[in-house]
Design a protein that fits this description.
It contains 3 helices and 8 strands. It has 112 residues and is α+β, with helices and mostly antiparallel strands.
Length: 112
Protein backbone atom coordinates (compact mmCIF):
# COMPACT_ATOMS: atom_id res chain seq x y z
CA UNK A 1 0.00 0.00 0.00
CA UNK A 2 1.04 3.56 -0.72
CA UNK A 3 -0.37 6.52 1.18
CA UNK A 4 -0.70 10.20 0.47
CA UNK A 5 -2.56 13.27 1.67
CA UNK A 6 -4.12 15.68 -0.77
CA UNK A 7 -6.60 18.53 -0.87
CA UNK A 8 -9.72 18.64 -3.03
CA UNK A 9 -9.72 21.68 -5.32
CA UNK A 10 -12.78 23.76 -6.26
CA UNK A 11 -13.45 21.51 -9.25
CA UNK A 12 -13.30 18.30 -7.22
CA UNK A 13 -9.86 17.29 -8.42
CA UNK A 14 -7.16 15.54 -6.42
CA UNK A 15 -3.79 16.62 -7.76
CA UNK A 16 -1.55 13.99 -6.14
CA UNK A 17 0.30 12.78 -9.23
CA UNK A 18 2.66 10.60 -7.18
CA UNK A 19 -0.16 8.24 -6.21
CA UNK A 20 -1.73 8.36 -9.68
CA UNK A 21 1.63 7.53 -11.32
CA UNK A 22 2.29 4.72 -8.83
CA UNK A 23 -1.04 3.21 -9.86
CA UNK A 24 0.08 3.41 -13.49
CA UNK A 25 -2.86 5.64 -14.40
CA UNK A 26 -2.06 7.98 -17.28
CA UNK A 27 -4.31 10.75 -18.61
CA UNK A 28 -7.38 9.16 -20.17
CA UNK A 29 -7.21 5.99 -18.04
CA UNK A 30 -10.77 4.76 -17.50
CA UNK A 31 -11.97 4.36 -13.92
CA UNK A 32 -14.96 3.20 -11.92
CA UNK A 33 -15.70 5.47 -8.94
CA UNK A 34 -18.18 4.71 -6.18
CA UNK A 35 -18.91 5.61 -2.57
CA UNK A 36 -19.19 2.88 0.02
CA UNK A 37 -19.36 3.09 3.80
CA UNK A 38 -18.20 6.71 3.76
CA UNK A 39 -15.10 6.18 1.61
CA UNK A 40 -14.57 6.58 -2.12
CA UNK A 41 -13.41 3.51 -4.02
CA UNK A 42 -11.67 4.08 -7.36
CA UNK A 43 -10.76 1.12 -9.56
CA UNK A 44 -9.15 0.70 -12.92
CA UNK A 45 -12.00 -0.25 -15.29
CA UNK A 46 -11.56 -0.36 -19.06
CA UNK A 47 -15.32 0.21 -19.37
CA UNK A 48 -15.41 2.97 -16.72
CA UNK A 49 -17.13 6.25 -17.45
CA UNK A 50 -14.63 8.36 -15.49
CA UNK A 51 -11.09 9.13 -16.63
CA UNK A 52 -7.87 10.59 -15.30
CA UNK A 53 -7.73 14.21 -16.49
CA UNK A 54 -5.34 15.42 -19.18
CA UNK A 55 -3.18 16.91 -16.42
CA UNK A 56 -3.00 13.55 -14.61
CA UNK A 57 -5.46 14.43 -11.83
CA UNK A 58 -8.27 12.36 -10.39
CA UNK A 59 -11.61 14.15 -10.69
CA UNK A 60 -14.22 13.07 -8.13
CA UNK A 61 -17.81 13.39 -9.40
CA UNK A 62 -19.92 15.97 -7.60
CA UNK A 63 -22.45 13.35 -6.43
CA UNK A 64 -19.70 11.34 -4.74
CA UNK A 65 -18.23 14.47 -3.14
CA UNK A 66 -21.70 15.41 -1.89
CA UNK A 67 -22.37 11.93 -0.43
CA UNK A 68 -19.08 12.11 1.47
CA UNK A 69 -19.51 15.74 2.56
CA UNK A 70 -16.37 16.87 0.71
CA UNK A 71 -15.85 20.51 -0.15
CA UNK A 72 -13.01 22.46 -1.73
CA UNK A 73 -9.95 22.53 0.50
CA UNK A 74 -10.81 19.33 2.39
CA UNK A 75 -7.79 17.08 2.81
CA UNK A 76 -8.20 13.37 2.18
CA UNK A 77 -6.09 10.30 2.87
CA UNK A 78 -5.27 8.35 -0.29
CA UNK A 79 -4.59 4.63 0.13
CA UNK A 80 -3.39 3.01 -3.09
CA UNK A 81 -2.87 -0.64 -3.93
CA UNK A 82 -1.04 -0.53 -7.29
CA UNK A 83 -1.05 -4.30 -8.00
CA UNK A 84 -4.85 -4.27 -7.68
CA UNK A 85 -5.36 -0.97 -9.56
CA UNK A 86 -7.25 0.29 -6.52
CA UNK A 87 -7.39 3.63 -4.73
CA UNK A 88 -9.43 4.33 -1.61
CA UNK A 89 -10.05 7.97 -0.76
CA UNK A 90 -10.74 8.54 2.95
CA UNK A 91 -12.64 11.78 3.64
CA UNK A 92 -12.23 13.56 7.01
CA UNK A 93 -15.43 12.03 8.43
CA UNK A 94 -14.19 8.49 7.67
CA UNK A 95 -10.81 9.29 9.24
CA UNK A 96 -12.53 10.69 12.34
CA UNK A 97 -14.54 7.48 12.74
CA UNK A 98 -11.43 5.29 12.40
CA UNK A 99 -9.40 7.37 14.84
CA UNK A 100 -12.21 7.42 17.42
CA UNK A 101 -12.53 3.62 17.17
CA UNK A 102 -8.77 3.08 17.60
CA UNK A 103 -8.57 5.54 20.47
CA UNK A 104 -11.51 3.89 22.20
CA UNK A 105 -9.73 0.54 22.01
CA UNK A 106 -6.35 1.87 23.11
CA UNK A 107 -7.71 4.15 25.82
CA UNK A 108 -10.33 1.72 27.11
CA UNK A 109 -13.40 3.40 25.72
CA UNK A 110 -12.33 6.84 26.82
CA UNK A 111 -11.56 5.84 30.41
CA UNK A 112 -8.17 6.75 31.82
Amino acid sequence: MLYGLAAIDVSGRIADRTIIRALGWAPGTRLHIREGSGVIVVRLDRQGVFTVTGQGHLHLPSAVRHWCGLTAGDRVLLAANPPEGLLVVHPPAALDAMVVAVHAGVLGGGQE
